[in-house]
């Protein structure tokens, strides 16, 4: 069992040296690994530190189109890992993003440019306080989940990345929404979410999963061992993972 596609890789188009490899290096590596599909998915422009700049999305797409000519045996996608920005479920998936991107990933990131001070406070400070206070934890989990479900309903999101990483989510409710919207849930090989317990809960619904590397350097592309172990521990039918063969 191995991955034949990796839909979550960061490149040098992220700011501040976040992704270490160029698009060409990523495609080269993916091809050498025998992957059939690769998606370049830098952080959305709504990320303070790492987000791709507007004008670079077009340039990244030009590069991807060039790579398609050079590596015709591979399906090469330009995507973005967008950010949830507030509790109304708004994200940085704008018309510009949709114009150039072939695949949309979205997730929660601490460095996002939140819509308001209150949103920023709740996402970061209150969720941190919840680690030590059960009542706050439960309230925040409900609030966070509601925001993610709203985002899933508002936008066409192909993959929700590392659900439950950094902020708690009610995976049962999330998976129900993912079933309705057709959003694939990510088992992230770099972060520990979804973990085995979460996969087990999500699997009750008619959802599909993907194991992505979330590589920030080309050597990590296609890695799936940790994700595969979590899926196996959860007893997941592996045919529900869209990028395994
Ligand atoms: Zn992420
Ligand atoms: Zn990522």
Known CATH architecture: Alpha-Beta Barrel
N-C termini distance = 6 Å
What spatial form do the alpha-carbon principal axes imply? Answer: globular
- The chain-level mean pLDDT equals 95
Gyration radius, in Å: 17 Å
The counted number of beta strands is: 7
Estimated structural class: alpha/beta
Describe the structure.
There is one protein chain. The protein contains eight helices and seven strands. It is globular, with a radius of gyration of 17 Å. Helix 5 packs parallel to helix 6 (171-181). The chain has 245 residues and is an alpha/beta fold. The longest helix is centred in the middle third of the chain and has 21 residues, at 134-154. Helix 2 (54-70) links the parallel strand 2 and strand 3 (75-83). The chain has one domain (5-240): Metal-dependent hydrolases (TIM Barrel). Strands 1-2-3-4-5-6-7 form a seven-stranded parallel sheet. It has helices at residues 23-32, 54-70, 95-100, 117-129, 134-154, 171-181, 196-202, 225-233; strands at residues 5-9, 37-43, 75-83, 103-107, 159-160, 184-188, 209-212. The termini are close together. It binds zinc ion (2 copies).
């Amino acid at each position: 069992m191995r991955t034949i596609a990796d839909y979550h890789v960061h490149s040098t188009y992220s700011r501040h040296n976040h992704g270490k490899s160029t698009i060409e290096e990523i495609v080269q590596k993916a091809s050498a690994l025998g992957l059939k599909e690769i998606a370049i998915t830098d952080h959305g422009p709504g990320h303070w530190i790492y987000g791709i700049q507007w004008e670079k999305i077009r340039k990244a797409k030009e590069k991807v189109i060039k790579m398609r000519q050079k590596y015709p045996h591979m399906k090469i996608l330009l995507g973005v890992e967008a950010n949830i920005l507030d509790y109304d479920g708004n994200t940085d998936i704008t018309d510009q993003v949709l114009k150039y991107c072939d695949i949309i990933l979205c997730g929660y990131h601490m460095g996002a440019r939140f819509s308001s001070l209150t949103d920023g406070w709740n996402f970061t400070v209150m969720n941190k306080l919840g680690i030590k206070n059960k009542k706050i934890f439960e309230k925040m989990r409900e609030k966070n989940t509601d925001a993610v479900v709203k985002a899933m309903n508002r936008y066409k999101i192909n993959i929700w990345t590392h659900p439950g990483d950094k902020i708690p989510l009610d995976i049962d409710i999330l998976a129900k929404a993912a079933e309705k919207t057709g959003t694939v849930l990510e088992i992230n090989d770099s972060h520990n979410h979804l973990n085995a317990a979460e996969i087990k809960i999500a699997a009750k619904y008619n959802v599909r999963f993907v194991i992505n590397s979330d590589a920030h350097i080309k050597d990590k592309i296609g890695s799936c061992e940790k994700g595969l172990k979590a899926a196996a521990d959860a007893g997941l039918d592996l045919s529900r993972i869209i990028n395994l063969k």
